[in-house]
Specification:
The protein is an alpha/beta fold. It has eleven helices and seven strands. Strands 3-2-1-4-5-7-6 form a seven-stranded mixed beta sheet, sandwiched between helices.
Length: 296
């Protein structure tokens, strides 16, 4: 995931927080990581591209922007964030004190989290990590917990050593968030990443991620086209049984799984009751998965 993809994801979270009274997912800090110029530019680009998303649309630029955000940009970002942070909260209640955010981008969880017992490890490319922390410092934000930022290449083997050198304890249960990663990795690379995580965490540790299912909808197709236009390729799709087998090979059992209907019911219901003229749904063709490491 490059900077533009991460910026658009942050924009979607920021727009939803600003424009809504009832939230699917409340990210109060996303806009602070964007400059005013970036926010305005993304707004104009998205509203100006309404013909791509909805040919024949009639309305004002503000109405076009809302349509694009609520029908295309926000649902996948909000659903996966809500699914993952609910799982993090549950893991923390059960005693987990290590959270690793793979391909962290401009995720604001480490800044919003108020549980000082957690240590959060942020992994991403060195360039992304540097830009992320420049934005955090410019915004004057301070994490309430210990945060370790690790610049690394997740497609190579060195990230594990860097994570452990940063203080990650392989003997203690951990939670791994891999939001938005599986789309851009080959099946082999994603499997190796899951196996790498499994190799440094004990029984009871969790991995949480979203992934493209074999049955994709119109939104998924447009997301692939947008990614290609940004110079990225979405490389894989998975049947549920295939993902289940991939996780089992690495020692994980699926604990919770949601498709579009499940995620819409769990996370969008309150928002939709408040906004019947602007209902949102989790995107078709995306699965949300929480898996737990089993004992050998």
């Amino acid at each position: 995931m490059d900077n533009m993809t991460a910026l658009v994801s942050a924009f979607a979270r920021a727009y939803h927080y600003q424009k809504s009274r009832v939230w699917v997912f409340a990210d109060s800090l996303a806009q602070k990581l964007l400059t005013d110029e970036e926010y305005i530019a993304i707004s104009k680009n998205m509203s100006g591209g309404i013909s791509f998303f909805a040919p024949g649309f009639e309305g004002t630029p503000d109405e076009a922007l809302r349509f694009v955000v609520e029908r295309q940009l926000a649902p996948s970002v909000l659903a996966r964030s809500a699914f993952c942070e609910r799982a993090i909260d549950n893991a923390a209640r059960l005693g987990c004190r290590q959270v690793a955010l793979y391909a962290v981008g401009y995720d604001t969880f480490p800044l919003r989290n108020r549980d000082g017992r957690l240590t959060v490890f942020e992994l991403d490319s060195p360039g992304m990590i540097a830009d992320r922390w420049a934005r955090i410092q410019r915004a004057g934000l301070e994490p309430a917990c210990r945060v370790e930022a690790i610049g690394c290449d997740l497609s190579g083997p060195e990230w594990k050593d860097r994570l452990i050198r940063a203080g990650f304890d392989p003997g203690e249960a951990s939670f791994a968030s891999l939001l938005g990663i599986s789309y851009y990795l080959s099946k082999g690379d994603f499997k190796r990443l899951i196996e790498g995580i499994a190799s440094i965490c004990p029984e009871g540790s969790s991995v949480c991620f979203d992934y493209p299912m074999a049955e994709g909808g119109a939104e998924a197709r447009r997301n692939r086209e947008l990614a290609a236009a940004a110079g990225e390729t979405m490389r894989a799709k998975y049947a549920y049984a295939e993902m289940e087998a991939l996780l089992a090979d690495a020692g994980f059992l699926i604990y919770e799984h949601m498709d579009a209907d499940g995620a819409t019911g769990a996370f969008f219901a309150a928002y939709n009751r408040e906004n019947p003229a602007h209902e949102m749904r989790a995107p078709e063709g995306v699965g949300y998965c929480l898996a737990v490491k089993k004992g050998r």
